[in-house]
Amino acid sequence: MAQTKPPKLTDLPRPPSPFAPPSSSRRRPKPPLKPSPPAHPPAPLQTREALDVGGVPFSLQRLGTETFVTVSVGKAFHVYNCAKLTLVLAGPQLPKKIRALASFKEYTFAAYGSDIAVFKRTDLVVTFTKHEEKVNMLYLFGEYILSADIKGDLFIWAFRGAKPSIGCADGSIHVHNIRYDEELMSFNHEIRGDVTALSFRTDGQPLLASGGSSGVISIWNLEKRRLHSVIREAHDGSIVSLHFFANEPILMSSAADNSIKMWIFDNNEGDARLLRFRSGHSAPPRCIRFYGNGKFILSAGQDRAFRLLHTGTPVIISCTFLSSQSAIEDQQSRELSQRHVAKRAKKLRVKEEEIKLKPVIAFDCAEIRARDWCNVVTCHTDTSKAYVWRLQNFVIGEHILTPSSETESLIKACTISACGNFTILGTEGGWIEKFNLQSGISRGSYIDGSLSLQCAHEGEVVGLACDATNGSLISAGYRGDIKVWDFKSCKLKSKFNVGKSVTKIAYHRANGLLATVADDMVLVLFDTVSMKMVRRFEGHTDRITDLCFSEDGKWLISSSMDGTLRIWDISLARQIDAMRVDVSITSVSMSPNMDVLATTHVDQNGVYLWVNQALFSPSTNVDSYASGKHVRNVLLPTVSSAERSEEEEPIKKSQDSNQSNIKPFVIMDHQIPDMITLSLLPRSQWQSLTNLDIIKVRNKPIEPPKKPEQAPFFLPSVPSLSGEILFEPPSSKETDGSTTEDIGHKKMADLSSHFSRLLQSCGELESYSAFTDYLKGLSPSSLDMELRMLQIIDDDEVEESEEPRPELHSISLLLDYFIHELSCRNNFEFVQAVLKLFLKVCDSIFHLKPIELVLKVYFIFLGTRYMVKQYGATRRYRRKSRFLKSMHTWESMWLLYHSAVPHRLVVVMYQHCSARNIWECRKCQLGETSPSVYPAFYFSDSPPCSSSVF
């Protein structure tokens, strides 16, 4: 190893930002690896969290009264508080995997490849690039940091009294005095494997802890020069780091099994016991699924562990969607118990992993009966039995489900019914059997009589699904046959063949769509009711590993070994987004709230979470990602901490600039010509508008209103509308007569309500969406009050006054609003209800003979009549006439007719007119088909009969 003077920690630059210029003796800092810039702004998915713990030796440092440990998680590092092992800080992604770690105060040193990155909290300060080979060791020596690469000698140093200990690969331990260069003692660790970690106890006890490749921790007594105690089966993998807390009887250990454990020496014999620990999958998970309304994730790994992970709570900081995981949430993540595994392993003197069940290959869960009995069923590798789990107690169930087939067959698929009472198992031999979850008893088998073996499928059953009403069971065979069974009678209802070998299926209970994956890497969607193919998606170039539906059934998400994650819009029948990661995805799951997507990856022990940005952003750039042609390169997520500083400010500015370039998605009024659109309001809301009189009579109080209490004689009171006692304010008896006269003649325009002002502003813009939303937000009684405010009480003054009344102007604007909504066919049932209420309330206004208002009323009548005739020409006339009658359309037409006819107004319009819409006049018969020309009107003393109108 080269004898060069390493830099001091006190000499490290302390710039306000990580982009400060480096010193002359160091190269420019290397920023973390970033994905290739996309051709469009950020797509609707962003990273949020990864649940993982690395296997590189950790580093401890003490700040004040707290002790913190820094661990590696692949290409990033995490900092935990040792008090309860809670996450407090997470570092950024590095270009390569971390090989060594060291920490000093707020600085963290991470070795990746041949470089060493120095971080102050999470900001990159400088990068050392002196090594030519990969760095394998980092060690702090006072104010210096020692590093060693694979070219030099590898030692693990732990100083106390200038006496380091040296562990060798042959299992021997040597305690050496550096000052006098002499060996003090040696121990033999050969039977426990290679020595991989050492640590001295510093609280006055002469003990040395050593860890080996077998996962055993040995405690040596330096005074007696012999073995003190042994912690057997401390870890399931090779121990990579040991550290005694300063002046405390606590030992921390980490190993390749993805766990951190704290041991305390508090008994009389000086032996250690487990104090607390944090662990994850020691092998990559292969199946994941959200549970508990998206708060938890069920994860089954290749390490034979079945875990329940807490996803944390999303926190929005600087428009970047991160996550916060508190101590309580982190402690809720745990491995489900397989009943006394440690006790049985100790009794049989084998590892716990050998006692556990084989890795899970498929599972299903249901939350509806979680408090009553087991609600999870799992299928395991090369196992002919299925196991049930009770998540309420985090333990395996008491029943073992064994299919009663003639020949023993391995279980390959499982599902739980919508009611949570039954589970259905599918085997490799093609048998399908139903079990009761409460008792574990078989409740029948599904048999296809046309098959010679009297089973359900010829070949392996690759997937099972049950509909939302327990009416049907859908099964898929490896040879491409899809069958629909009667759930209760176990009889075959229908079947069809895909034509290719099916490897995986996904079913959405709400819409009845079944997605299948074949060997040709094509996603095919079938409607299980009509038994027809409805969608076909192509795009993956390698084997499809998993797929899932969104909760609303609009998206289909698929992953492939080509490293891509693709999102397909089922209604649009196209891909809307695609991204590629550097590690292939093996399993995906979308949360019920559609805010988080969970993924697992090849050779990755963590479960990675992605946030659906489309749910949080105020606007999304539909032009950029809706085409789905561009595949974005992204990095894997990292865990984000709850404590964030000013480091998000640059992110906020960059995202604000991106948001400024995003075009808002505008919905046009006429998306489909001649199509009526409803308001989607509750039926009770718009029906109450036409039945206000009945509601008022029903809600009329039985007892007469009580007289308000009299105030004391020395406090003068005034009457109030609400019945409350109001005191007369002091006022001067002498008032100016001119002032009173001005107040009496004050114009109504100055006292206009928000209803009138909003109606006028929307009329000027010719866009009534804001006014419609305002009407929808009003209660029926409030809307009735607003319409009654338009009534004219003093009819005589209207004829005598030369100036137009503000009420007539507001009524004219309101009629324009009705004409616009009827022409656009928007909010049909709500507009009809409001129109009927308006005609009832303001019927007396039309007797004042304002010709402009009468013409507009007649236009509304023609528009409603045209839609009724258009619906009547269809085949389903009766059904649609009932639909229109339920929306008070006939009553509105009758009121419209009687509002216009008393004024002897007759429209010249032939019944055989071939005009395309009612706004074209009769001159279309002469070739003049301009829609801008209004119908011709004249006055007659004999109004037409009602039969000619309807």
TrEMBL record:
One of its GO terms (cellular component) is small-subunit processome. It holds the Pfam family Beta-prop_WDR36-Utp21_1st. InterPro entries: Quinoprot_gluc/sorb_DH_b-prop, WD40/YVTN_repeat-like_dom_sf, WD40_repeat_CS, WD40_rpt, WDR36-Utp21_N, WDR36/Utp21_C. Residues 671-847 form the WDR36/Utp21 C-terminal domain. WD repeats lie at residues 232-263, 454-495, 537-578. SUPFAM superfamilies: Soluble quinoprotein glucose dehydrogenase (SSF50952). Keywords: Repeat, WD repeat. Residues 32-44 have a biased composition (Pro residues). It comes from the Eukaryota. Residues 166-266 form the WDR36/Utp21 N-terminal domain. One of its GO terms (biological process) is rRNA processing. Residues 1-46, 638-660 are annotated as: Disordered. This is Small-subunit processome Utp21 domain-containing protein.
